[in-house]
Amino acid sequence: MKSSPPLTEQDLAEFATALEETKKDFKALRQRYGEVRDAFTQRAEAQAKITQGHLPKAELNRLKKQIETLEETLENQLLSWNNLKEPFWQILRFVGLGLVLGWFFRGWFGS
């Protein structure tokens, strides 16, 4: 059985940094979850008021605009840059690496 090398101070510092980043990401995720949950609740309440009927036209228009705004908020929460940042950079990194390797092999083996 292979034994792993002993941990260094740098390894522990990197782990602590990664742990802090994960903590911040989790806190941001929890906050986004609360915002999305509140928006869903507010949208459901507005839709319930609309379906009850007998509302003045001004109130009906206000509720419809509120629903549109809440739906935009929900869409923005689901498609934010923070959610797409990591996959974007991974794709960019591996596509770039693939291009470099392709050019290298083409030059090496000639075609």
Automatic annotation (TrEMBL):
Residues 12-80 form a coiled coil. This is DUF2203 domain-containing protein. Keywords: Coiled coil, Membrane, Transmembrane, Transmembrane helix. The chain crosses the membrane at residues 88-109. It comes from Leptothoe kymatousa TAU-MAC 1615.
